[in-house]
Amino acid sequence: MKIPYPDIVLAMARYDAGDPKRIQHALKVFGFASVIGEREGFPPEMLAALRTAAILHDIGIHNCEKKYGSAAGKYQEKEGPPVARALLAPFGLPEKLTERVCFLIAHHHTYAGIDGPDYQALIEADLLVNLYEDGASPEQTLAAGRKYFRTPTGRALLSAAGGARSGPPFRAQKIAGPVWRDS
């Protein structure tokens, strides 16, 4: 099945209308997630779940702010999946894909118990954007790289992105951790 990413992006943008920061954040995460997934050789179904979740990963933020007065990750994980499911319904995606997308959204701020390459890639893509948007120091970026990044592509992107400001904070060397490839 061909996934209508441009239409899903437009649905997300309409939902987040008037909030360019959130729209641009989602598109940056989508870009990084796509690069990681493609470079790591994810199978098509996994890549589809990753890309779709990346577009919608923060879709529950407005509900969180209204309901809890906070956009904290634990609230996003709770409020995001129902909104994502409603936004995806008109596209007639396979239920298995929608379920995985909602699972990824419901866990994108949970860094323990990562159960697959798509989950790992979403964590890395979101962190790449958050570290930059939050103005993380080279030391914070290096610590995040060592603690959370496992894919060679994610590590290379972190090194390149961090290097643009103050020299490479993280070198993509041989570091223990899974390499996500189906062979």
Provide keyphrases for this structure.
disordered C terminus; mainly alpha; Hypothetical protein af1432; 183 residues; globular
Description of the structure:
This protein is mainly α and 183 residues long. It has a single domain (5-166), classed as Hypothetical protein af1432 (Orthogonal Bundle), CATH 1.10.3210. The protein has nine helices and no strands. The chain has helices at 5-15, 20-39, 44-56, 61-68, 73-88, 95-105, 117-133, 138-148, 152-166. The longest helix is centred in the N-terminal third of the chain and has 20 residues, at 20-39. The model is unreliable at 163-183 (pLDDT under 50).
Question: TL;DR of this structure?
Answer:
By secondary structure, this protein is mainly α.
Helices and strands in order:
Layout: H1 5-15, H2 20-39, H3 44-56, H4 61-68, H5 73-88, H6 95-105, H7 117-133, H8 138-148, H9 152-166
Q: Spell out the helices and strands N to C.
A: HHHHHHHHH
Q: Which CATH architecture is right? A: Orthogonal Bundle
CATH topology: Hypothetical protein af1432
Largest sheet: none
Mean pLDDT score: 88
Shape: globular
Number of strands: 0
Number of helices: 9
- Rg on CA atoms, Å: 16 Å
CATH superfamily: Hypothetical protein af1432
Distance between the termini: 23 Å
How many structural units, i.e. domains?
1
Give the structural class: mainly alpha
| Strand proportion | under 5%
Low-confidence stretches: 163-183
* Proportion in helices: 55-70%
